[in-house]
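User: Assemble these into one structure.

Assistant: Restating your components, then the assembled model:
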Amino acid sequence: MSIDVLSPGRALLRRTGHSMPAEKGREVAGPVQGPVPGLVEASSGSLAARLSRESLERAFSDRFRDGRTEASSKGNVAAIVIGALALVAWVFACMTMKPADYTDLGLISAANPWFWLALAGGVGSFTCALRAKHFHAGLALFALLVVIAVLWTTPSVIEGTIRVEATYRHVGLADQLARTGQLRRDLDAYFNWPGMFAMLGMVQASAHVPELLGVARWGPSLAALGYIAPLLLIARSLTPQRRLQWLAVGIFFLVNWSGQDYFAPQTLAFWLMLCILGVVMTVIRRGDDPDAQGLSARMARIRVPLNTEGLHRVWVGDEGVRLRLSRAQWHTVHAVLLLGVGASIASHQLTPVMLLLVLFGLWLVGRTPHWFLWFGGGVMFLLWLAFPAAPFVAGHLYDITGGLMGTAPPPGASLTTSSVSGRIASGSAQHVLAVHARIAQTLVVWLMAALGTVLLISARRRIRGVILLSGLPFLLIPLQPYGGEMLIRAFLFSLPLVAFLVAVFLSGVTSGRALWRGVAMFLVLMVLGVSTVLTRYGNERGESFRPAEVTAYDWFFQHTPTGVTVQQMTPNTPHVWQRYASDTWVYQNDAGPGADWSTPISGTSLIKSVKTSAPQSKTVYVVYTKSQQTMAELMGNIKSGALDRAASALNEDPRYQLIYHNPDASIWKVVGYK
Amino acid sequence: MKDARLYAALTLCALTCLAAAFGGPAGFKVVAIGAFVIFAPGLVLTHLLRINDNLLSLVIMMMIGPSLWVAISTLAAFSGWWAPTATVVAMAAILGALCLVLMRTTVLGRPGPTADPHRHRFTAHLAEDPVITKSRKHRGAFPSPYDE
């Protein structure tokens, strides 16, 4: 079961022309002799030269060789101490921060000095661990966990309830399957891609628990923990330098403002994609030379038919750690990969498309020699659309292919509400500031990634795989008419590779033992982290819920019969975590970014909405919670207090009987509804 | 300990059977069954695969469980054969039995103590290490005439 690790030294051997062209599939080990011509030649010139002359030689030289002989150094001790202090500060922050202090800027408005101290400590500990004389992966992991705790877990701790309305829906879907095992494929898209909900339903039912709210609350933290290993594997397949690998992983967490990491099928599918990507980019079949396979390899051979060893194979192993597997291991691992692709297809609509594009891209650049991954995955995807998801596909052809095929939107479909301009322009001034901060942070990250690309090019590193994988997600934008939503997802999908490029840049410009370089790295990471507090949690005022709101729904589920119609002003409430399919849930408006609502909310408009959306209703309840007002106000749909006033008016309306009330929620029964 | 994965998987299988069959606190049940679903299949398969790279093994180990259970539960939902407790307990029993078989195989496959240590002085130290030899059974660099 021997496995060869293609070491960077061996790769340099090939690049410098010192390689011994052994027979295919066998590697030649040996020390690198003399300077590296590629690096030296790249050191003359303009921007690339300035960036590469010092920084590259530092970044890619043996100065960062891992020290394994000494267990500790000043940097490591500092990382432990600062990280421990940051944890203490974070505990104090969680005890003192109050969600009631949220403004339209979100979490950042409630952050106190303890929080900033914790964030600075986490980032500082991470920087110390990365720049310690003797790098220790365990310390980098510890510091990264501190950063994740501060940046990804704080809202879950201080709010006391699950954040993001969709999470409650997903808990409700798992509950529906746990209780009945029935797929209502005619109801909505979720039941046509039920993979994750079926798995969770099986866990819930076999554990005999009423719901999974307790698990869902920690969704972002669990997702972050799950991301670490596959991200590290991806980074390791791109560079053999451990500090750079960990820096790339850290940057992913520090700049990920997308907020798409919660108790959701997309999170599971994205995580599976990261795992599959990491494995595919790492393993090589024994006897295979992956860079002699694939379309690009054939093209290279066409261009230089006499020098396949030179042009195409020159970079083999230069990009990171690759592992050779035996035939049995190879087949088993790829069977597991196909299982993962299948699970992704069964769980989410969009992510498998991205996954198949990635697999196709990897085959195209010769990173994986087998086409069956993308082809087999594509066949599975089409079969899923044709059979299990047929009820949804038949009725939503425009949603699936509208952007690609140019199909006319159905009557009443409004694209303006989800467009990019709508997202940018709507909402309060503070909310607009948060949206603009997201755009600015994204542009800065992409700029740093571009500079990282320049560094790699200057070092004559093969970057086509990295460029391809970081650019492929943007092909999704015209695929569906999601507007700004698709941009967010494209950003997320490209982030693992973009984070690597940013890490290359940052490592390149801050490498060296001078103290100011370490301070510079800390400051850059800190700026990214602080901006992520604003960009990631800018909607937190609308996306968080009060415990009294959850209590109101708990009361509702226990004291009302099933099979009723529930009318809400907007869907932004902690609802449907039970009775997902047995009750009919109707919303008069969708609190999305965009223009003002045309129809004012009133008792009459609510009843009219029920009659239009659910004409078969016999018993109707109306539920109002504070979060409906908050989100609609945040998104610029209504003026301050408009829904509160409408809810107060319902108390005076004889058609509405108030049956439950607490400071944050009210429930009415519509009397004499016909 | 080379069999640590098998022991971990066996523990998860046992805890899952306990939680599903006999109950307990809600937190314990969710954690036990959740950990079983996520980790147990991967622990067993990565033990069989014996990939000598911890990070790659970890990623493969993590992705096997959720992928497998998404497939099983989706199939159960579409086929109408929805019996969560029975499915989970059956899988735990199968995986637990597999763990026991693998542990027994591994233990028996190891070279046992010998009365004459010099006789095996030049053989491989571990049963897993491949020993290149032309004969079907490796007899060491200096085989004893008693082996013939």
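Chain B is about 65% helix and 0% strand.
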